[in-house]
Amino acid sequence: MKIRITKSQLRLVIFWSLVILVAPFALETVMLAELAGAEFAIGFLLLYLKQSMLALRDKVARLKRYLGSIAEILANHLAFSERQFLSHAGFSLAAIALGSPIFFTAVIWYPVLVTGTYT
Q1: Which keywords does the record carry (predicted)?
Q2: Does 6 reside within a domain?
């Protein structure tokens, strides 16, 4: 005997699956599904998620404005003007190159390697 699943049974299985997936995050949805049914709980969950999405969009918009104001402040700063930036970057690279262990290793061992090849 082959089991046939009707559309209403399939819809109910999908709704209960969604309720079970959401249960760890929104426990009130499970209680609402027990009292009012899975369809009502999914409708409540969608309204609940709509408010959460609106709050998330607001936070993202505030973050974009905040980062934009930081970028504007940095763009107007003297250290980020082209002339200052290139000189600072050049001196920083020179300091890193002269202060790095690779430079000291090359200074100490390169003469040894060079003289060792001629002996």
Answers
A1: Membrane, Transmembrane, Transmembrane helix
A2: yes
Q: With respect to residue 28, please indicate whether it lies within any of the assigned structural domains.
A: yes
Give the C-alpha separation, 101 to 92, whole Å. 16
Structural domains counted in the chain: 2
Q: What is the pLDDT of residues 74-99, one digit of tens each?
A: 888 877 777 787 888 888 888 888 87
36: Cβ–Cβ under 8 A, 6 or more apart, which residues? none
CA gyration radius for the chain?
Answer: 33
Token representation of residue 28 = 């009130």
Token representation of residue 97? 């190159």
DSSP assignment of 49-64 equals HHHHHHHHHHHHHHHH
Structural domain boundaries enclosing 97: 77-119
Query: Is-above-0.70 flag for pTM?
Result: no
Question: Hey, what are 65's tokens?
Answer: 């404005």
Which helix or strand (DSSP H or E) is residue 109 part of? helix 101-118
Structure tokens at 98: 């002269």
- CB half-sphere exposure, 22, CA atoms < 13 A: 23
